[in-house]
Design the sequence.
């Protein structure tokens, strides 16, 4: 694919790293049914285009190259709405969130469980299913998009569905690593508890 692209365009379209290929293989080992979603898997695991860096035709060109070598998605059935299912594990009844083909254990709840609810249209269900798969694979997840497209909303909704606490940390160019590793408290009287 890269060779086909580099000849007419003179640039390498994407760095397909070994790490990205390993992520794709690990994903397919756990979710073999996703062999019918290789095109989506490529974009989600191996590469994403930055519209500010690549020209607008780059995504179309790469999509055409993927299709030319047979990397395309098979037709998929619409996903059913999310639901909670119970399964007997030993003496206990374990509850799971079910979205598409994925089941993820429900949490115990807490003070920071979101109460956000969104409409479960197909795109939202597909995004939830992909995120849950990455959670099961213990992958780091980076949601990329313009402000206001729903990145935080889908995170909050997933927290609501899973009954998991969610904490947000706003980051900017001024964020330091210590901001993510420490808890700042002010005005506490006990010795040694004020500050970081």
Sequence:
């Amino acid at each position: 694919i890269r060779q086909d692209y580099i000849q007419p365009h003179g640039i390498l379209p994407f760095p397909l790293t070994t790490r990205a290929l390993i992520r794709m293989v690990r994903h397919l080992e756990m979710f073999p049914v996703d062999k019918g979603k290789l095109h989506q898997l490529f974009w989600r695991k191996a590469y994403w285009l930055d519209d500010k860096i690549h020209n607008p035709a780059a995504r179309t060109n790469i999509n055409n190259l993927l299709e030319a070598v047979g990397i395309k998605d098979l037709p998929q059935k619409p996903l059913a709405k999310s639901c909670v299912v119970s399964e007997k594990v030993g003496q206990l009844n374990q509850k799971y969130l079910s979205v598409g083909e994925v089941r993820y254990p429900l949490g115990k709840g807490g003070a920071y469980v979101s109460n956000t609810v969104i409409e479960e249209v197909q795109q939202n269900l597909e995004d939830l299913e992909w995120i849950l798969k990455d959670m099961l694979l213990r992958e780091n997840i980076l949601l990329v998009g313009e402000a206001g497209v729903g990145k935080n909303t889908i995170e909050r909704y997933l927290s609501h569905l899973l009954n998991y606490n969610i904490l947000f940390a706003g980051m900017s160019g001024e964020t330091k690593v210590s901001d993510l590793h420490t808890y700042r408290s002010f005005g506490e009287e006990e010795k040694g508890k004020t500050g970081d």
